[in-house]
Amino acid sequence: MAAPVLFDLGNTLAAYYHRGEFRPVLARAVAGTAARLRAAGIPTAAADTLLARALRENREAPDHRFAPLRDRLARIFDLQPDAVAGFGEELCREFLGPIFAMGRVYGDVPSLLTTLRARGHRTAIVSNTPWGSPPDLWRTELERLGLSRLVDAVVLCGDVGWRKPAPPIFERAAAAVGARCDECVFVGDDPEWDVAGSTGVGMRAVLIDRDNRFPVHTGARIRSLAELPPLLT
User: Fold this and answer.
1) Model confidence over 61-109: pLDDT tens digits?
2) How many DSSP H helices and E strands does the chain contain?
3) Residue 41 contacts by C-beta under 8 Å, 6 or more apart in sequence?
4) How does DSSP assign 81-93, residue by residue?
5) Which residues make Cβ contacts (< 8 Å) with residue 86, sequence separation at least 6?
6) What are the DSSP E strand ranges found in the chain?
7) pLDDT tens profile 128-166
8) Which end of the chain is more exposed for a tag (fewer CB within 10 A), N or C?
């Protein structure tokens, strides 16, 4: 059987933003969410105060447990539970708007995923979502990008309650493609979340380093997905 191949999303299959772009993206996300709240008659703090609160929320649990975006927005904007519930996912969608606006699929992705399917490889997208954002919003984004139809499964951290590199998300992904962890290949751009996380459960890891950030990486490393098929034989 051809080895199942699991892929990270951001900076692997699709480009969003790099570390240096994070703060201005965050500022736009906070400003858009504040404007939506004010339009609904809910006052907000000053922009600099909101951004400072948002920056304090830019952290994940040390044990990699999933922390929902709704809870973070409630703290940033000092919202009561009934206010958060009243908006449903609308505030999360507003917050993610600047991120989704930047999303684009890398040019080497559609042909590679099509080739893998033709060769009998089952495939999946396995990804953390920024700030514990809701999986349903990211499934809609994957449909917009045209990626959903090119893979057999999608497993996001919010589905599992744990973020990469915690084992449960990798284990759920292997099960989603009907395989054991040690039968799977994992492709991602982060040495800790993707490489260490997947090898920790027995997967074979391939680091995709599109921007040559890790030239001394000692494991399997590619600069483009076009280089992946020979590593699967």
Assistant:
1) 999 999 999 999 999 999 988 888 889 899 999 999 999 999 999 999 9
2) 10, 8
3) none
4) HHHHHHHTTHHHH
5) none
6) 5-7, 14-15, 104-105, 123-127, 153-156, 185-188, 204-208, 221-222
7) 999 999 999 999 999 999 999 999 999 999 999 999 999
8) C
